C-alpha cells in the first residue's frame, strides 16, 4: 500500500463541527468583548494554533473570560454535533487494508472526548490521538504530525495527513508527509486550500481511496 500510516484532522474533516465552533466563537466575542466579528474573520483562524491562540488574537487581556464563555456555549452543542458519515465509513476499510490510523487535532483531549462520546465508532477506529497537550508547538508547525507518525511506528515518507484547513496542509508539508486537502469541511474555501499546494485535493470522501 502507498501509505500505511494515515492521520486525520478532526474538525471539518471527520466531524462537521465548523458550525458549532463558529457559533461559540461569535458568542464569546459578543458577550465578553461586545464585538460582532465577521464569520469570515473567525473562520480564517480555525484549525491552527488552538483555541487559546485564537482568543488571544481577539483580546490578549481577556483570554480566560473568552475561553470560559466559549466552552460554556460549546460543550452543550456537542449533543447536536454531526459527523461526515461517508468519511467515517471509510475508516474500517482503511484499517482492513492494514493501515494504522490516527487523529492530529488542535483540540484538547477533553473536547476530543466529547466528540468520541457522540461518535463512539470513531474512537474505535483510531489507534492514536495527538491533541493540543501532546506537543509544545502546534499546526502549522510539523511537530503534531510528526508525533502522530512516531506514535504509530511509521515513517514520514510513508504517511499521509488529511485535513480541511491551510494549517493542516502546511503542517503536513513541513513534516514531510503526503498532504491531502478535503473540500467538505465548510470552514475554509477551496481557493484558500489550493493556494497551499497540497499533494492532493479531494471533494468527495470516496476520492480518498484513490489517493491513499
What does it look like?
With 212 residues, the chain is an alpha/beta fold. Helix content is 47%, strand content 12%. The chain contains eleven helices and six strands. It has helices at 18-33, 39-43, 51-58, 63-77, 85-96, 109-118, 120-125, 143-151, 166-175, 190-194, 208-211, and strands at residues 5-8, 100-104, 128-130, 159-163, 178-182, 200-202. It has a six-stranded parallel sheet, with helices on both faces. β5, α10 (190-194) and β6 (200-202) form a beta-alpha-beta unit. α1 packs antiparallel against α4. It is globular. The relative contact order is 0.19. The mean pLDDT is 93.
Give the SSE layout:
Elements: E1 5-8, H1 18-33, H2 39-43, H3 51-58, H4 63-77, H5 85-96, E2 100-104, H6 109-118, H7 120-125, E3 128-130, H8 143-151, E4 159-163, H9 166-175, E5 178-182, H10 190-194, E6 200-202, H11 208-211
Parallel strand pairs: 1-2, 1-4, 2-3, 4-5, 5-6
Helix pairs in contact: 1-4
Q: Sheet bearing the most strands, described?
A: 6 strands, parallel
Distance between the termini: 8 Å
Number of strands: 6
> Could you tell me the strand content as a percent range?
5-15%
What is the alpha-carbon Rg in Å?
Answer: 16 Å
Decide which structural class fits the backbone.
alpha/beta
Q: What is the approximate shape?
A: globular
Q: What's the short story on this structure?
A:
The chain has 212 residues and is an alpha/beta fold. It has helices at residues 18-33, 39-43, 51-58, 63-77, 85-96, 109-118, 120-125, 143-151, 166-175, 190-194, 208-211, and strands spanning 5-8, 100-104, 128-130, 159-163, 178-182, 200-202. It has a six-stranded parallel beta sheet with strand order 3-2-1-4-5-6, with helices on both faces.
